[in-house]
């Protein structure tokens, strides 16, 4: 299968990963909003598919004004009955989604060419065969149970009532990558804490560096190697995974919701084609791997269209939160017998 980079000129110059970029209004991370204590956001939460225990726990721990547990149980039970009905009447609805590859030599050439030059594209989607394609939002399987409606309202204001094709493209594939507010510090020993209002903050992995990679910082000694522990944000491109005849939305739930709410049924998306569970584990969000059997083999799994069925969701005011990532490292120095 052709890869994503078939649409990229072979002479493309790759920018530095740390190249400076301007501000883009279209990012999944909540980059334009602070999170003072006591503030709340409006949240949509799918009911009927999470277990009753998970549903009650979410409401109790997140809602600004939790309802009576008995009432919540009744709401969950009603939604559950509808879910069981859909598993019969809409069995197979998520199977064989329509995926239409977007060719470079088309009206989208300029946008595509600029997009695939982005280092986050070139280095972030090269594990499995990948393409840029049009996908139908209602055919996508979703694992995310909640949608931040307050954030969606921000996206709607920026999109407008009738967004142009270019604005839709840049919503799905922002060419700029502003960094949401972050504070971090060493707390003790080898522990460092990163805090942000964006739920996209994450551990990005460890890097093996050479002393020459470290600039403008006095060396603590005669270095022979540097271990880097990276924390930051994801690429924020709308992307999905095609696996076992289903299309799972892997990132971009809020933008997909906002576009679908505006009546846009088909959007451009990075589609990664996976042929085994090992490959799925390598590219999917960790939430996907918590229960891949449900997403791939349930006759009617959670789908993006369910966000728009009032019988399948609950809207509530939730307490705004900060997100924290803690990284730690240990050092051991020992003597060993000489060989």
Label this structure with key terms:
single chain; 339 residues; 27% helix; alpha+beta; 10 helices; 2 domains; five-stranded mixed sheet; disordered N terminus; three-stranded antiparallel sheet
Describe the fold and architecture.
There is one protein chain. A 5-stranded mixed beta sheet has the order 2-3-11-9-10. Strands 4-1-12 form a 3-stranded antiparallel beta sheet. Strands 5-6-13 form a 3-stranded antiparallel beta sheet, with no helix packed on it. It is globular. It has helices at 52-62, 69-89, 109-116, 119-124, 149-159, 165-172, 253-261, 277-283, 286-290, 292-297; strands at residues 40-46, 99-101, 130-136, 146-148, 183-188, 191-196, 202-209, 226-232, 239-243, 246-251, 266-274, 313-319, 323-328. Helix content is 27%, strand content 24%. Residues 1-37 have low confidence and may be disordered. Strand 9 (239-243) and strand 10 form a beta hairpin. It has 2 domains: 4-13 and 22-178 and 235-319, no CATH class; 184-234 and 324-328, no CATH class. The protein has 339 residues and is of the alpha+beta class. The protein is built from 10 helices and 13 strands.
Per-chain topology:
Layout: E1 40-46, H1 52-62, H2 69-89, E2 99-101, H3 109-116, H4 119-124, E3 130-136, E4 146-148, H5 149-159, H6 165-172, E5 183-188, E6 191-196, E7 202-209, E8 226-232, E9 239-243, E10 246-251, H7 253-261, E11 266-274, H8 277-283, H9 286-290, H10 292-297, E12 313-319, E13 323-328
Parallel strand pairs: 9-11
Antiparallel strand pairs: 1-4, 1-12, 2-3, 3-11, 5-6, 6-13, 7-8, 9-10
Helix pairs in contact: 5-7
């Amino acid at each position: 299968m052709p890869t994503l980079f078939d649409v990229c000129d072979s002479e493309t110059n790759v920018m530095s990963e740390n190249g400076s970029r301007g501000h883009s209004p279209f990012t999944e991370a909540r980059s334009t909003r602070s999170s003072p204590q006591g503030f709340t956001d409006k949240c949509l939460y799918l009911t009927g598919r999470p277990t009753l225990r998970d549903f009650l726990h979410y409401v109790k721990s997140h809602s600004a004004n939790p309802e009576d547990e008995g009432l919540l149980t009744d709401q969950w039970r009603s939604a559950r009955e509808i879910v069981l009905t859909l598993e019969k009447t809409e069995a197979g609805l998520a199977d064989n989604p329509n995926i239409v590859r977007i060719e470079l030599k088309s009206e989208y050439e300029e946008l595509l060419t600029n997009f695939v030059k982005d280092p986050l594209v070139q280095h972030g989607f090269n594990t499995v065969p990948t393409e840029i394609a049009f996908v139908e939002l209602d055919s996508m399987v979703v694992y995310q149970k909640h949608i931040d409606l307050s954030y969606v309202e921000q996206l709607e204001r920026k999109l407008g009532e009738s967004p142009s094709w270019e604005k839709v493209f840049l919503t799905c594939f922002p060419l700029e990558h502003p960094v949401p507010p972050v504070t971090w510090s060493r707390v003790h020993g080898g522990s460092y804490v990163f805090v942000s209002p964006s739920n996209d903050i994450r551990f990005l992995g460890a890097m093996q560096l050479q002393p020459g990679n470290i600039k403008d910082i006095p060396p603590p000694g005669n270095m022979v190697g540097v271990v880097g522990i990276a924390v930051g944000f994801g690429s924020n491109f709308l992307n999905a995974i095609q696996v076992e005849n289903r299309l799972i939305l892997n990132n971009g739930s809020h933008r997909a919701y906002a576009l679908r709410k505006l009546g846009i049924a088909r959007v451009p998306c990075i589609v990664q084609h996976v042929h085994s569970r090992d490959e799925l584990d390598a590219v999917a969000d960790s939430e996907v791997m918590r229960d891949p059997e449900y997403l791939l083999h349930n006759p009617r799994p959670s789908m993006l269209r369910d966000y728009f069925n009032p019988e399948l969701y609950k809207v509530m005011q939730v307490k705004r939160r900060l997100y924290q990532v803690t990284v730690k490292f240990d050092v051991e120095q020992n003597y060993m017998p000489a060989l």
